[in-house]
Amino acid sequence: MITTQAAVIRENGGQFAIEDVNLDDPGFGEVLVRNIATGVCHSDMFVQAGMVDMPRVLGHEGAGVIEAVGPGVTTLTPGDKVIMGFNSCGMCGPCLSGRPFACESFLLLNMFGRRLDGSTNITAADGSAVSGNYFGQSSFARHSVANVRNVVKLPDNTPDKLHRILGPFGCGLSTGAGTVINALQVRPATSIVVFGGGGVGLAGAMAALASGATTVIVVDINDDRLKLAQTLGATHTFNGADADLKEKIIAATGGGAHYAMDTTGNMKVVRMSNDILRIGGTTALVGLSVPGTPVELDHMGMLDGRNIIGVVEGAAVPQVFIPQLIALYHAGKFPFDKMVKEYPFEDINKAFHDSEVGTTIKGVVVF
């Protein structure tokens, strides 16, 4: 067991407090990571707002260095530079079929922050339980215990400055890019509309451009985000409050988009994302909403061949897909660094505030 510092949240909608906590030594198939930085993701804000049933340590876009390995670990060694993504069991049908994003224990291992046996690995200084293992890492802390299945090893020569901002590849950026590349399988000379110009949406737009899409539209109600989308290569941007939004999109895509992606979780936007498709087009739903939220779709519009799919974690295998995204970055086709802003660990609450109000696209907390 080691003592480290973590940002602990103790009530729904509450602020993070940096506290000394005790972290278990890595068990079988686990590693101890000294975190250097962690991205701020919308999923963290979603949990912060309404899923705090006990003291929790969030954070699931960690970047760091292996300090120790547990029994059974043969592919990672102390000193390895890594980033951390989502966890999976490795034993269920989807995992064994190469689809860890569809793991039957996904909620337990990620959103609920537990090991398969239901245990957690963090206690407060007074010995009381703290929920750790969030996405197999709880990386809003100076150290994390992670599973080998959610750790991606980086090349040894990865510059520290780059390593520090690669954490968001573990969730937000791979979710956006993977939705386009893996789930929608966007083809060259096609059109796509991305609803929501945050980190996930802009990652999707960049991936669409890298895939050869020739009409890439970003929709948001924040004009600064739309300007950034243009800088990143979007061919069109529209303000979501425009009364003629549907007509403008259909005109810009020559009769309707081949693909759409909703990152907002807003049901009116979900409906719009399906309405602007051409016959045979597909909408991918990525944004979170409150469980049980109903959505209305045009039944006749669906009958004529429009499709809608849900996507988790970009339908990606982290150890395969994240190196591909890094290669796209080095090739100049995925300039994610243009939307990153770094914050010292002590300013984690400011990082959350700025991300929530939209003044920061992709915040990264640095230790």
UniProtKB/TrEMBL annotation:
Keyword Metal-binding: yes
Family: Belongs to the zinc-containing alcohol dehydrogenase family.
Residue ranges of domain Enoyl reductase (ER) in the record: 13-365
Native organism taxonomy: unclassified sequences, metagenomes, ecological metagenomes
Protein's recorded name: Unannotated protein
PROSITE patterns membership: ADH_ZINC
Alphabetized UniProt keyword annotations: Metal-binding, Oxidoreductase, Zinc
Pfam family, one: ADH_N
Cofactor: Zn(2+)
InterPro entries, alphabetized: ADH-like_C, ADH-like_N, ADH_Zn_CS, ER, GroES-like_sf, NAD(P)-bd_dom_sf
GO MF terms held by the record: oxidoreductase activity; zinc ion binding
UniProt cross-references to Gene3D superfamilies, sorted A to Z: Medium-chain alcohol dehydrogenases, catalytic domain, NAD(P)-binding Rossmann-like Domain
UniProt key word Zinc: yes
